[in-house]
Automatic annotation (TrEMBL):
<dbReference type="InterPro" id="IPR038136">
    <property type="entry name" value="CofD-like_dom_sf"/>
</dbReference>
<dbReference type="InterPro" id="IPR002882">
    <property type="entry name" value="CofD"/>
</dbReference>
<dbReference type="GO" id="GO:0043743">
    <property type="term" value="F:LPPG:FO 2-phospho-L-lactate transferase activity"/>
</dbReference>
<dbReference type="InterPro" id="IPR010115">
    <property type="entry name" value="FbiA/CofD"/>
</dbReference>
<protein>
    <submittedName>
        <fullName>2-phospho-L-lactate transferase</fullName>
        <ecNumber>2.7.8.28</ecNumber>
    </submittedName>
</protein>
<keyword id="KW-0460">Magnesium</keyword>
<keyword id="KW-0808">Transferase</keyword>
<dbReference type="Pfam" id="PF01933">
    <property type="entry name" value="CofD"/>
</dbReference>
Length: 329
């Protein structure tokens, strides 16, 4: 069987998982995986900076699939330089704590140019995808601008709001968050093709991405949650928590802010079971969290434990295969 797989994903965790999905399809002899693998990418991290439109999660996944990402640093392009960034800083433009590589800026300029000419984010991404053999179809979650805003409890200045990227990069998530919002998302629609891909899928996989600021905005786009609840495809989630801890990043701070425990059980409960009001049928937990299985099954999900460290595409492909096995495809 050549399954059609849809993955919901954020940036770095998402891209490792998507590389695994492409590899899992290749193991099944599916070379033209663009027809079989659709990735719905979080655009809550997007922002306007220095006059250009940045799409951090979209770019992380695009660069990873193209094989041009900087794996050591974890973001941006391999062998990049920062000459333009230094010049922008000299002009006092942009954020001093937020570095934009020269090659990366080339992407942002191209994207911004196309947007200014009237292309939609979906159209821009389609155009960008023609440059490399990505082996996946990438769709933004929505064409609307719904950038994530964090309300923090600033010890010096009291409650105030800032763009998610400022909180994450400048403050390293140290200012206590009170809430995460995507202004305007109530009026947003899924990007063209998103609801259709979910409806026509044989399996929908929720990548081990940040549940609050990567998967949260995707599920908050009106129409995506209902598409997940209605599809005949099994929906399988992969835990971003291993041994009760986030693997990297600061997702635990985000989970704490919305009152969810940093555990495989906590995140499963946040997504919920399709038998109730949620979106999941099955939940893959780390072998370190095998004790969670009983509780996860009690909320109406089938659960299995597997090694969930995505150290390379081979391991990630094993994880995707385990998720597909749970979906029986
Ligand atoms: P971001 O948008 O770049 O922050 O990346 P994502 O939201 O896609 O992924 C971040 C999440 O990935 C973190 O919460 C981590 O817990 C999770 N993560 C990162 N590496 C791994 C891994 O090797 N295995 C698992 N299971 N989760 C991981
Ligand atoms: Ca992100």
């Amino acid at each position: 069987m050549t399954p059609r797989i849809v993955v919901l994903a954020g940036g770095v965790g998402g891209s490792k998982f998507v590389l695994g999905a492409r590899e899992a399809l290749r193991r099944r002899g599916i070379a033209a995986s663009t027809d079989h693998l659709t990735v719905v990418v979080n655009t809550g991290d997007d922002l306007w900076l220095s006059g250009v439109r940045l799409q951090p999660d979209v770019d992380s996944i695009t660069y990873a699939l193209a094989g041009v990402n900087d794996t050591a640093r974890g973001w941006g392009r391999q062998d990049d330089s920062e000459r333009v960034n230094a010049e922008l800083q000299a002009w006092g433009v942009g954020w001093p704590w937020f570095t934009l590589g020269d090659l990366d800026l080339g992407t942002h300029l191209a994207r911004t140019g196309w947007l200014r000419e009237g292309a939609t984010p979906t159209g821009v991404l389609e155009r960008m995808a023609t440059r490399w053999d990505l082996g996946a179809r990438l769709l933004p979650m929505t064409d609307a601008e719904v950038d994530t805003v964090v309300t923090v409890d600033d010890p010096d200045r009291g409650p105030r709001s800032m763009h998610f990227q400022e909180w994450w990069t400048r403050h390293r998530a140290t200012l206590p968050p009170l809430a995460f919002d995507n202004p305007g998302i109530e009026a947003a629609a899924p990007a063209p093709g998103v609801a259709e891909a979910i409806a026509e899928a044989d399996a929908v996989l929720i990548a081990p991405s940040n549940p609050v600021v990567s998967i949260g905005p995707i599920l908050a786009v009106p129409g995506i949650r209902s598409a997940l609840r209605q599809t005949s495809a099994p929906v399988v989630g992969v835990s971003p928590i291993i041994g009760g801890r986030v693997v990297r990043g600061m997702a635990d701070v985000c989970l704490g802010a919305i009152g969810v425990e940093t555990s495989a059980v906590g995140v499963a409960g946040l997504y919920g079971s399709r038998r109730d009001e949620g979106v999941l049928d099955a939940w893959l937990v780390a072998e370190e969290d095998v004790d969670a299985i009983e509780t996860v099954e009690a909320i109406g999900l089938t659960a299995h434990a597997r090694p969930l460290w995505m150290t390379d595409p081979t391991r990630s492909a094993d994880i995707v295969e385990a998720a597909l096995a749970q979906a029986r495809v």
